[in-house]
Amino acid sequence: MKNYIRQTKSLLFLGVTAAIVFASGCNQSVMTAGRDTAPSQQENIDVWPTLDIEVKRSAEDEARVKALLADMTLEQKIAQMIQPEIRDITVEDMRQYGFGSYLNGGGAFPNNNKHSTPQDWIALAESMYQASVDASLDGSSIPTMWGTDAVHGHNNVIGATLFPHNIGLGAANNPALIEEIARVTATEVMVTGIDWVFAPTVATVQDDRWGRTYESYSENPRIVHDYSRAIVRGLQGAPDDDFLGDSRVISTVKHFIGDGGTVGGDDQGNNVDSERDLFEIHGQGYVGGLSAGAQSVMASFNSWHGKKLHGDKYLITDVLKDKMGFDGFVVGDWNGHGQVKGCDNTSCPQAANAGLDIYMVPTDAWKPLYENLIQQVKDGVIPMSRIDDAVTRILRVKVRAGLFEKPSPAKRQFSGKTELIGQESHRAVAKQAVRESLVLLKNTNQVLPLSPNMNVLVAGDAAHNIGKQSGGWTITWQGTNNTNEDFPGGSSIFDGIQEQVNAAGGTATLNEAGEYTVKPDVAIVVYGEEPYAEGHGDREHLDYQRGSKSDLALLKKLKAENIPVVSVFISGRPMWVNAELNASDAFVAAWLPGSEGDAVADVLFTDQQGQIQHDMSGRLSFSWPATPTQATVNLNDEDYAPLLPYGFGLSYGDENTLSSNLNEDYEVSAKDSSGRAIFTGTLQQPWELWLMSGSSRLPVTASTASLDGLKYRTVDRLVQEDAFRLSFDTSETGAGVQIASKSFFREDMYAQGKNNAVLSVMFKTESAIPDEVLLGMNCESEGDPVGSCNGQVDISDLLKNLAPETWSEISIDARCFTEQGVKFENMVAPFQLTSKEKLSLSISDIAFKFEKADTADMICPSA
Q1: In 507-653, which residue ranges form alpha helices assigned H by DSSP?
Q2: For a Cys staple, 279 with which of 283, 527, 803, 840, CB 3.0–4.6 Å?
Q3: Could you report how far apart the first and last alpha carbons of the chain are, in Å?
Q4: 328 falls in which pLDDT band (50, 70, 90)?
Q5: Closest by alpha carbon to 731, among 715, 708, 713?
Q6: What is the enclosing helix (H) or strand (E) of 253?
Q7: Which pLDDT does position 42 carry in this prediction?
């Protein structure tokens, strides 16, 4: 589930009047919708099984649902299908419309306060519930549901127990532990009055460049199957025991289906697997979770053979509901319906007709969507039978969950028992998960385990950083802008080392840069990826710290001083770290361990008597790459040749098998790519076209568009509509209007900033050229001030030199932007054109090309 608009930040405010921007990954209905096509293969429903689902229908429940439905108006039914977000509705809205459910997106809190207390969460839950059962305005007393992304514990709430992300849990390969983690999570969620969790994620990731890789348990469908079953039982309870009782929450198996197998690991991209692979690889989490009785399924952002899942009737209705037998409800993802061909966020009958039961519709789009759905039913666009089916499914789950009988949120079993948030017994479960998730990749001369009675230097920027070790979906959506003070009761990795070493009479010194006054006996260096979530984590390659290698420099510094080096690597995926492995005597893949970092020391150190406290038991649930571009190496591949295979992991005493002379020379260079296209007659994924003027912005979804002084229309260059014309006219806007470029997803375009690359654009000028026309790029860099990660050049002279009304190429040295601070590895807008004055021109073919800088029209050699 996404939270885009509220999480984006402005990158650049320019004193110009209009702009056209290619930016990455917006959540609106933009050009991706126009790329939908029908699947390129025959549908084969026999691939899918009919499941023996443990939760059986009850005649009594079905009769009750039927009676409820019979008394509902069309407006009340549609309200059950609308799920707005807490920042976009009021308690009075709930009283007036009676929404069937609502949610808090990532980084959304009661009172819009990150430090909201559990009492604040309960107060909002109680108010919304009471408004939903108040029939004074809408005539409905059906209780609402609150859904939240509790994906590694109750991760939106300060002080909650945060477990390792799924990739670490997969390395533990312990379904019983997973069920207990889910039980604890359900308890802490219920303390805040919430009754529905958007978990588990059951993506079987096949391309580790995907920014959600850490949300996957494994590349192996078997682990995903078993874990899905376990976590559903932990969240909801066993069907033959306490199913959806007072200590349980509704679970959501997500995202249906194929999100872990998109081409290039592109978030919200296109899965082109065969239908059999779709089931055998990406469908196993649904077999496990649905068989255990999961009551909801979340539709995925991705496409299958070009067709968006939110609008795929075959997969949602024919496969999931009819063939597999799922009788709960299907909820959409964050405005995912707006990406269906022919839809936008405010209108999408196609999604309902495909089988979507609940529209997740944040922002103020919920109201026009509600009104449009009502009208579309009245007009016969959506059959009433489809609405009745959707509402029947929603009511069925509410009846099964006992929402009509349970006390209101403030009066439920765990509500307000704040001592349960981060309770020690809960943290003990998380510590076990941390210990079992660690994977030992290298252990030269049995450096590990360490004696605690030593002089230990602890270095690296992740050593005493609970936010970094916890990753994305941690308090904030991206997991950024958190400090250790935001984790009361939690511990850093250094905290655990210091406690154990001091207790044994040794010395533990923290110095991120690896400086010391007394030479240490050993250095533990904790480093790794910065937090990210979803598309912001998409990468082009798996080379760690490409271009900077500051952590490698630290390792080499310590090695050169003859200090044994133990690397503790924090990451949301396997990465190409050959150089870092070579510079380490021991190397531990710690993944994203969550709030209980002190448990790492339980495994790194012996006890004071020299006995192993906890062995290294984690095993790779993802194959480890041999090169930066080996992002799709998976178990059972025909040409399977990873650096370290699936299932690898050393225990203490095992012979070290990893060489200290791994190849470090691999370069991501022109031989790996000819460049990168942005626009070639059609937009290339993941880029989307936006018009911007002042505070207004408009996604281009058709052949014409206009916005406050800027007009767009498609034109022909070589073939039909393979180019577009822009007309800037400041007289329509007046003086003082500004343009803002918003960041959506970071795209890793490191290679495009190197390799003597140029940005090449085909232009045709159709008016006089003003004295300033700016071509810019924008990137996003966490921790940097707004506007510090951008660059622009004035191309007016280049345009003036072109023959009018003639297509001509202009090329600009990429160094013109890197020298201004553009970080290509964090790119969000690789092409932005602005003008302060009247201008008309047409544009085609926008692309980066390698080894062209020396002959570029604008050259910016490095100083």
Answers
A1: 550-560, 578-582, 599-604
A2: 283
A3: 45
A4: very high
A5: 708
A6: strand 252-256
A7: 61
**Whose structure tokens read 């690898």?**
648
- CA dist., res. 252 & res. 597, Å (int): 28
CA atoms within 13 A on the CB side of 715: 18
pLDDT, position 617: 98
Structure tokens at 207: 């391309």
Torsional sign, CA 150, 154, 157, 161: negative
The 8-class DSSP code of residue 803 comes to: P
Q: How far from chain centre, in Å, is Cα 194?
A: 22
Q: Rounded to whole angstroms, how far apart are CA atoms 770 and 16?
A: 13
What is the mean pLDDT of the segment spanning 782-795? 71
Dmax (CA) for the chain in angstroms is 84
Distance of CA 476 to the CA centre of its chain: 12
Q: Is 606 helix (H, G, I), strand (E, B) or coil?
A: strand
- For residue 3, is pLDDT > 60? no
Cβ 681 vs Cβ 721: under 8 Å? yes
- In DSSP terms, 308 is beta-bridged to 303
Residue with tokens 């690359």: 757
DSSP reduced 3-state for 127: helix
- What does the alpha-carbon distance between residue 396 and residue 243 come to, in Å, rounded to a whole number? 14
Record the pTM: 0.82
pLDDT band at 680 (very low <50, low <70, confident <90, very high): confident
Which residues are part of the catalytic machinery?
A: 333, 534
Q: Is the pLDDT of residue 700 over 60?
A: yes
CA nearest neighbour of 832 among 793, 805, 804, 802: 793
DSSP symbol at 813: E
Q: Where are the beta strands (DSSP E) in 454-585?
A: 455-459, 507-510, 522-528, 565-570
Pairwise CA distance, residues 627 & 47, whole Å? 35
Give 164-206 as a 3 state SS string.
CCHHHHHHHCCHHHHHHHHHHHHHHHHHCCCCEECCCECCCCC
Distance CA 714, CA 768 (A): 21
139-197 per-position pLDDT tens digit: 999 999 999 999 999 999 999 999 999 999 999 999 999 999 999 999 999 999 999 99
Q: What is the dihedral of CA 197, 200, 203, 207, to 10 degrees?
A: 90
Please tell me the distance from the alpha carbon of residue 430 to that of residue 491, in angstroms, as a whole number.
Answer: 12
Nearest to 406 by CA among 247, 241, 239: 247
Orientation angle between helical segments 175-191 and 221-236, nearest 10 degrees: 40
What does the DSSP 8-state code read for residue 651? Answer: P
Could you list the beta-strand ranges (E) of 432-513.
439-443, 455-459, 507-510
Peptide bond connecting 282 to the previous residue in cis, omega within 30 degrees of 0? no
Rounded CA gap, 168 and 265, in Å? 20
DSSP 315: I
**Token pair of 205 as six digits:** 């990731």
* H/E segment holding residue 130: helix 118-133
Question: Structure tokens of 250?
Answer: 């509704």
Contact (CB, 8 A) for 729 and 706: no
